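In this section we turn from sequence analysis to structure. A common task in structural bioinformatics is to predict how a protein folds when a small molecule is present, because the ligand can shape the pocket around it. The inputs are simple: the amino acid sequence and a SMILES string for the ligand, here pyridoxal-5'-phosphate. Study the lines below before reading on.
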Amino acid sequence: MPTYARADLMFERGHGAYLVAANGEEYLDFCSGVAVTGLGHAHPHLVEALTAQINKVWHTSNLFRIEGQERLAARLVAATFADTVFFCNSGAEAIECAVKVARKYQSASGRPERYRILTFEGAFHGRTLATLAAGRQEKHLKGFGPVVEGFDQVAWGDAAAARQAIGPETAAILVEPVQGEGGVHLPPDRFLANLRTLADQNGLLLLYDEVQTGMGRCGHLFAYQHFGVAPDVLAVAKGLGGGFPIGACLATEKAAVGMTAGSHGSTFGGNPLAVAAANAVLDVMLAEGFFAHVRAMNTLLLKRLGEVARRYQGVIAEVRGLGLLVGIKCVGANGDLADALRRRHVLTALAGDNVVRFLPPLIVEESHIDRAIAALEGACAELAKV
Ligand SMILES: *Cc1c(COP(=O)(O)O)cnc(C)c1O
């Protein structure tokens, strides 16, 4: 179906931070399949791990134990606030699971009337009917019939508005620690801490959507570790499999109290191939110094982008970001800047609020940043003329 306004470009292979088109032309990939290929393309460790698993077993279903899945769950638990993990195949499914965990928690705790989820303007939580209702973007909901019941929304960054909106039916607060699709919005000071307090005072669960911010993107395994405020439930997907589809919903034992045998399921979720990919990703990310590298590249990238922005104030309105989730807010149309960059063989992703996202692979080096900045300068010079 023609559901995408695709660029007329097709890639045959990739290596590291580069994608190679059929005609042999190389593109610097600062899109990373929308924050998915965090280790770049054809990473030797991922290739080796997937190749080994392909020759063993691909899929058995969750009717049986899966060694790699148990190992992956144990590693995610050891590295985070969580005690338990459910595996699925995408971000939207991970959010659906988080919403189900929250509703089930309330009902299992003797408060079945609590089912509503509080979300924030500008949020993006996925494209299923419930996650669309959570995001509440008019352009995504239009024409798809009645909006799934049970989601309320208040202004981004406004903890006081969130407090006001909590009612006797509220079950949980769902928030992206940094809004990605909405335009790379960092939370105001103490926002997440205030939400944590609100949740605790009102018997609500705090759910983080780390589908985009997780898996090292923001300079820690998960962005909440930067802010120092843990959730009760966390959804992750995008970067988890390094390009292989896999999602997960992490929770505390307490939050997942209602998730008993038969309460949720997925045919493909956490199958042997998917968890082989995710375990290989963790092998690389959990090695000494990986996240420090991401943070060092963040400092460098923001500094260099800031220099370009100061020279081209007629093109770039603002630069902001955490880790390697970086947004360039444009003065003219963001699509024009992205097109100008693509003509210079640099791939980026658009976001809301007229933003172009730079989402380099986390293995990015200074030389890649030099190249992206040179392309950006060229693009800005071109756009400043018109
Ligand atoms: C991409 C994204 C989703 C949806 O993930 P899919 O895998 O496309 O279902 C949900 N939340 C956030 C924050 C995302 O960036």
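The pocket of pyridoxal-5'-phosphate is lined by residues 90-92, 95, 124-126, 176, 180-181, 209, 211-212, 237-238 (CB under 6 Å). As an exercise, try to locate the residues that line the pyridoxal-5'-phosphate site and compare them with your own expectations.
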